[in-house]
Design goal:
Layout: E1 7-14, H1 21-37, E2 42-44, H2 68-80, E3 83-92, E4 99-106, E5 112-117, E6 123-126, E7 130-133, E8 145-148, E9 153-156, H3 165-173, E10 178-180, H4 187-205, E11 208-211, E12 215-219, E13 222-225, E14 228-231, E15 237-241, E16 246-253, H5 254-263
Parallel strand pairs: 1-2, 2-3, 9-10, 10-11
Antiparallel strand pairs: 1-16, 3-4, 4-5, 6-7, 8-9, 11-14, 12-13, 14-15
Helix pairs in contact: 1-2
Length: 282
């Protein structure tokens, strides 16, 4: 494989998806064209990019990886000759009722490079603030995913995963230099937690974090926080869009990742035996 480029441009897209799939995908097409026109090598979309419905509803129809929604992003990638991360798409998950909430990475020729199925499902109950039962219709994934590309090594994650640092440790140990977090963070939790958690994951793993997000009111019962951003390996927010829909661009310099990891070699100090260690019985 060609040695990784040292510098490239990433675009993170902030959207306000609803249950109107055509409208959502048309908007994604427009944002991809804008990002490519501004020189993006990688274009990343948020969670639920194609469909964001009322909690407790039937949810989007799950598709095969070869289905129409994934194909549309594949064509988008080939048209713009860019890597595209389709934030999440609902994929069929075997014969059962539940589907996968899957993030799909496409190469610039439109082929599938990696598929990550969300491992941590958003089951929370904060009275009058946030009540969600993602596990009602989604089956949790069981495998961390790292994609080695000619640009960089990408670690994939989705939204609620952000609260579980052990996942990102696994990604960093596997070589991830850029961590993607496509999300639909709630407005209530996002105000206190979103940026703090993103910065922590960047600092802990000395990696770039790219976080495309949903923003605004999707329907009567759902509002997302927005604040799409890119964070550098030192924990600095280098690009951000707080509100409104649009494209955030940032320059990714892998030499900075290498320098920070050399000067502050925290990853080499990880006690790997602590990852997965079970509590001993008394």
């Amino acid at each position: 494989m060609t040695p990784p480029a040292r510098v490239f441009t990433v675009a993170a897209v902030q959207m306000r998806s609803t249950d109107d799939r055509k409208r959502n995908l048309d908007a994604a097409e427009s944002f991809a064209a804008e990002a490519a026109g501004r020189g993006a090598d990688v274009i990343a979309f948020p969670e639920n990019v194609a469909d964001l419905r009322v909690e407790g509803g039937s949810g989007p129809s799950a598709e095969l990886l070869s289905g129409p929604t994934a194909r549309r992003f594949a064509v988008m990638a080939a048209r713009h000759r860019a890597w595209i991360l389709a934030g999440t798409i609902a994929l069929r998950n075997g014969p059962g009722r539940k589907r996968s909430n899957a993030s799909i990475l496409f190469t610039p020729d439109g082929t599938v490079a990696a598929v990550y199925r969300k491992m941590h499902l958003f089951d929370v109950e904060i009275p009058k603030r946030a009540v969600f039962r993602e596990s009602r219709i989604v089956a949790a994934g069981d495998t961390p995913v790292v994609a080695v590309t000619p640009l960089a090594t990408f670690g994939l994650s989705i939204c609620y995963d952000l609260r579980f640092p052990e996942l990102y440790r696994h990604l960093a140990i596997a070589g991830a230099e850029v961590l993607f977090v496509p999300s639909a963070f709630t407005a209530y939790t996002g105000r206190s937690h979103w940026t703090a958690l993103l910065r922590a994951r960047a600092i802990e793993n000395l990696a770039y974090v790219v976080a495309p997000a949903q923003w605004g009111r999707h329907h009567a019962g759902r509002r997302s926080f927005g604040h799409t951003c890119v964070i550098d390996p030192w924990g600095r927010v280098v690009a951000e869009r707080a509100r409104g829909t649009g494209v955030v661009l940032a320059r990714i310099d892998l030499a900075r990742v290498a320098r920070f990891r050399r000067e502050l070699p925290a990853l080499s100090h990880i006690r790997r035996e602590l990852l997965g260690r079970r509590r001993s019985s008394a």
